[in-house]
Amino acid sequence: MNQLFWPMLALFIWTFLVTLRNLQVRLAAMRARQLKETYFEIFQGDAPAEVVKVSNHLRNLTEFPPLFYIAIILVVVAGRVDAVFGWLAWGYVVLRVGHSLIHLSINKVKPRFVMFLASQLLLLAIWVRLAWQLA
Q1: 49-60 and 83-104 helices cross at what angle (nearest 10)?
Q2: C-alpha 104: how far from its chain's center?
Q3: Is residue 46 helix, strand or coil?
Q4: pLDDT, tens digit, 9 for 90 and up, residues 36-61
Q5: Which residue among 12, 35, 63, 133 is buried most deeply as judged by most CB within 10 Å?
Q6: Which of 55, 70, 122, 75 has its CA nearest to residue 94?
Q7: Handedness of CA 101, 89, 91, 62 (dihedral sign)
C-alpha cells in the first residue's frame, strides 16, 4: 500500500501546484486589466494566451488522472500491490509531470504529445494488468 500512496500523493501535489499557477496567471491578467471578471462567468471571451494555456492544462490534469487514482486504489483494495505496479505508477506520474513541464514552458506539440501518449499507455498497462490479475 505505502509504495503506491506516494505516486498518488505526488500527482495530487503536482495538480495542486498547477492549480496555484492557474490562480497566479489569472490574477496577474486581471491586475494588468487583460482579463475581466466577467470572463469567469462562462469562460468565454478574450483571455491572454497564458491564462488559456494554464487553464487548459489544469483541466487536462483532471481528465485522465482520476482513472489513475481509481486504478491504484483498486490495486490496493484488491491486495495486488507489488513492485511492477509501483514502477508503473511512478512512470505515469513522471510522464504526467513531464507533459506539464513541456506544456507550461516551451509548449512544443510533438514532445508534449509523446509524453501524453506514453502516459496514456502506462495508464492502460496499469488497468490491463489489474484486470488480468483480477480475472
Answers
A1: 170
A2: 12
A3: coil
A4: 888 888 888 889 999 999 999 999 99
A5: 35
A6: 122
A7: negative
Which amino acid appears at position 127 of this protein? W
CB-CB contact of 44 with 84 (8 Å): no
Amino acid at 50: E
pLDDT tens digits for 99-111? 999 999 999 999 9
SS3 for 32? Answer: coil
Cell numbers standing for residue 113: 504529445
The cell for 96 is 504526467
C-alpha cell at 58: 489544469
Tell me which residue of 29, 10, 6 sits closest to 18, measured CA to CA.
Answer: 10
